[in-house]
Amino acid sequence: MQAELETLYEGILDGDMSGTPDNVQTALDAGLDPDVILKEGMIAAMGEVGELFEEGEYFVPEMLISAKAMQAGLGILRPHLVASGVDPIGKALLGTVQGDMHDIGKNLVGMMLEGAGFEVIDLGIDVSPQTFIEAINEHQPQVMGMSALLTTTMPKMKVTIDAMRDAGVLDSVKVMVGGAPVTAEFAEQIGAHGYASDAGQAASMAKAFVS
User: Fold this and answer.
1) DSSP 3-state helix, strand, coil percentages of the chain (rounded to 5)?
2) Which superfamily does 90-210 belong to?
3) In percent, how much of the chain has pLDDT > 70?
4) C-alpha distance from residue 90 to each of 86, 167, 186, 203 (Å)
C-alpha cells in the first residue's frame, strides 16, 4: 500500500477526525485516483474496524470515532468521486420507526454504510410507514434499514413492512431491522429480509444484498 493510503487507513483506524481530511487531501495531491482512495484507504479501513468490533477489540465508542473520521474524510473526497464518475455501490434508506425517538444506533449504521460505499438517505426518527414508502418510490434504494429501541415501537416494523407490501414496494428493496430489543426471530416473523445485531453486521449484510 502506498504511504499516503497507509497514513489515511491508519488515521481512520485510530479515529483521527481532524487529521483524516488532511490525509485525504495529501492522497489527492499525490495524484491518487479518488476511487482508489475510497476503496483501499477508507472502505478497507472501515472493514477492519468492523472486524475489530466483531472480535471484541473495538467497542461502540471506537467504532463511532472511526466512522466519524471516515465521514470527515468523505467530505473532502466526495466532490472528487462525483467529478470522476465513481458511483456508490448502492443506495440505503434508513429510519427509526414511528413513535421511537432514538437514533444513535441508526446513525452509526449510516456511517458504516457510507464507509462501505453506499449512498445513505437518512429519514431520521419517528418515521411513519407512509414516509418510508414515499422515500422508496423517490430514491429507489436497494436496501432499507429500520431501527427500534423500545419494545413498544417494535410492532411498527411489522406495520411498515405490511404497508410496503400493500403498496407494492416490498419486492423492490431488501429490508433489514435492528435495535436493542429486536431479534433474528422477530425479523423473520415480521417478514424482514435480515436482522443485524450491530452496525458492522448491518454494513456486511447490506453489501451482501447488492453483490
Assistant:
1) 60, 10, 30
2) Cobalamin-binding domain (3.40.50.280)
3) 100
4) 12, 22, 26, 12
Residue 160 has pLDDT above 90, yes or no: yes
Query: Cell 466532490, residue?
Result: 79
User: 152: closest CA among 133, 179, 129?
Assistant: 179
pTM to 2 decimal places: 0.85
- Residue 56, class by beta-carbon neighbours within 10 Å (0-12 exposed, 13-18 middle, 19+ buried)? exposed
Residues 118/71, Cβ–Cβ less than 8 Å = no
* DSSP H helix total and E strand total for the chain: 10, 5
For residue 38, the model assigns a pLDDT of: 93
pLDDT at 60 over 90: no
pLDDT recorded at residue 32: 97
> Contact 62/16 with Cβ under 8 angstroms?
no
Q: Choose among 28, 113, 26, 34: nearest CA to 70.
A: 113
Look up the CATH number of domain 3-83.
1.10.1240.10
